[in-house]
Amino acid sequence: MTTAPPPAPSPLRHPEKRNKPDNPIQRKPDWIRVKAPTSKGYFETRDLMRGKGLHTVCEEAGCPNIGECWAKKHATFMIMGETCTRACAFCNVATGQPKALDPMEPVNVATAVKELGLAHVVVTSVDRDDLADGGAAHFAAVIANIREFSPGTTIEVLTPDFMHKRGAIETVAAAKPDVFNHNIETAPRLYPTIRPGARYFTSLELLNRVKRIDPSIFTKSGMMVGLGESKTEVLQVMDDLRAAEVDFITIGQYLQPTPKHAAIDRFVTPDEFESYARQARGKGFLMVSASPLTRSSYHAGDDFLRLREARERLLAAG
User: Fold this and answer.
1) pLDDT in tens, 230-247
2) What is the mean pLDDT of residues 143-147?
């Protein structure tokens, strides 16, 4: 029997934000509204995740594309629990003390990937600053199990920054994901208020180090706009990512999850997104996705095929 979609997460999932002033949520413009999920495929995907005790960033972060993606049985797995050790002002994932890692999670993720018949899978995680390696070995175990259960599936990881965890990046890169994604999120000027637990240049160095370790791995990064950044700052982020040899950039509209999160400065128009896309392509990215509803894993499978084709054309051209 079809049931109603789960309600939006409560602000009480974020106890550290209770005493912060409310930022009223603005009404969305027509170009960014989506319908509530009602398809059979959506509920089948949801039930599979529930049955295996798995989490997805689609739900935990309140992604607006969940109805479309889950209807096609595309989901982004969020490993290492549903509680993050950081409290970014834009993120709807709960913050607190995480539970111990589930040793069966790598197998459970791999079996879900096989049951969904995914040609391409995205695996992300909460920040786990409590772990000695930041969860790098767990990422590697998930990749290894997916390879075993679904050898034909291409794998994209969206990792935290593993802040100063020695050998963490090398551990994940050695597992040879097809795409190594780490989001830069916003302009460096906004880090103290939007991403206080991270460092802009640490993220750039992570992406560049992956390329130095294994140039065959595609690198990818994304940022949100509408948080108060200037157009000049967006273009500078593009330049910094290209200097770090990033192949693929995603740019999407920030959407405020609750009144306790950072306020939206403005809604960026579709024409502005198209302008960003043109400029990013001109700066040499192999792949660009820029639109109001773009998210890191939105259409990731199709984008991976285009990314691989773009590299092949580049190599063929000499």
Assistant:
1) 999 999 999 999 999 999
2) 98
Give residue 299's pLDDT.
Answer: 76
Number of C-beta neighbours around residue 226 at 10 A: 22
Query: pLDDT tens digit string along 98-142?
Result: 999 999 999 999 998 998 888 899 999 999 999 999 999 999 999
Q: Exposure string (b/e) for 71-99, b if CB count within 10 Å is 16 or more?
A: beebbbbbbbbbbbbbbbbbbbbbbeebe
CA distances from 135 to 61, 102, 107, 121, 286 (A): 20, 12, 16, 19, 29
- Burial 252-261, CB ≥16 within 10 A → b, else e: bbbbbbbebb
Could you tell me the domains of the chain? 36-316 (3.20.20.70)
Nearest-angstrom CA–CA distance, 288 and 220: 10
Q: What's the pTM value of the predicted model, to 2 decimals?
A: 0.85
- Sequence-distant (6+) residues with CB within 8 A of 274 are 290
Residue with tokens 């989490």: 55
Q: pLDDT tens-digit profile of 33-74?
A: 666 555 566 666 666 666 666 666 555 555 665 556 655 556
How many residues does the structure list for the chain? Answer: 318
Please count the other Cβ atoms lying within 10 Å of the Cβ belonging to residue 177.
27
3-state DSSP call for residue 293? Answer: coil
How far apart (Å, rounded) are the C-alpha atoms in residues 225 and 291?
10
